[in-house]
Amino acid sequence: MSERDALSSGLSMAELGARLRAERRARGMTLERLAELSGVSRSMVSEVERGAKTPTVLVLDRLATALGTSIARLLDEPVRPDAVILSGEGQWVVRDPSGWERRILSPVLPGVEFEFMRTTLGPGVDAGEFSPHAPGSHEYTAVETGRLRLTVDGVPYRLEAGDAAYFPGDRRHAFANDSDDPCVYYLAMTLDRPGDGHHRARSGGRDG
């Protein structure tokens, strides 16, 4: 998988690493602290920041969550809060080696932590478990085609095409497709940006 395929854009791994480092430093956070909060090893965080390693979507999401932000903000610069049109070719797409992709449909706005995305899971693909976001965060999902197994704090829910669901964003959550057909679903999330203590309380014991 090439760097361009991983991000479906011209953003290099070095540029992504620089943005991750800038977000971390803006919060006065050390490499060790980001590793602790995200459950990603310090060596992996360092390699991503140096542009030496391409992170999976799950790793990128854990790093963004530990920073109290979204993948979209790590990939793109904020735009002015006017009407923004995102063409299909201009949308960010991140692909995971396990067989799924996330297409980001919302622009990055100054001071707004919101992300709207379209995810495609291949047949039999498990996207893995995502870290809890800050208390006060919210997530909404709707299935366009196929079947989705949504798991929230260890409780599985089966969603068919046309079904929708809401869950608090500060819960452990996972997405999987147990069927033989692709699953396409939309996810919208609003993120709170808490103090450091909230993350500490929620982050213990996760593996990278």
Mean pLDDT figure:
87
Low-confidence stretches: 1-6, 196-208
Based on Cα principal axes, name the global outline.
globular
Number of helices: 7
The computed structural class is alpha+beta
Computed CA radius of gyration, to the nearest angstrom: 16 Å
- Determine the fraction of residues in helical runs and give it as a percent range: 25-40%
What is the count of β-strands? Answer: 10
- Order of strands across the main sheet: 1-2-3-10-5-8
Cα end-to-end separation:
21 Å
Helix-strand string: HHHHHHEEEEEEEEEEH
Task: Compile the SSE list and pairings.
Elements: H1 3-7, H2 13-26, H3 31-38, H4 42-49, H5 57-66, H6 71-75, E1 92-96, E2 100-104, E3 114-121, E4 126-130, E5 138-145, E6 148-152, E7 155-159, E8 164-168, E9 173-176, E10 183-190, H7 196-203
Antiparallel strand pairs: 1-2, 2-3, 3-10, 4-9, 5-8, 5-10, 6-7, 6-9
Helix pairs in contact: 3-4, 3-5
Descriptive overview:
The protein has 208 residues and is of the alpha+beta class. Helix content is 28%, strand content 28%. It has helices spanning 3-7, 13-26, 31-38, 42-49, 57-66, 71-75, 196-203, and strands spanning 92-96, 100-104, 114-121, 126-130, 138-145, 148-152, 155-159, 164-168, 173-176, 183-190. The strands form two sheets. It has a six-stranded antiparallel sheet. The protein has a four-stranded antiparallel sheet with strand order 4-9-6-7. It starts with a helix and ends in a 5-residue tail after the last helix. Residues 1-6 and 196-208 have low confidence and may be disordered.
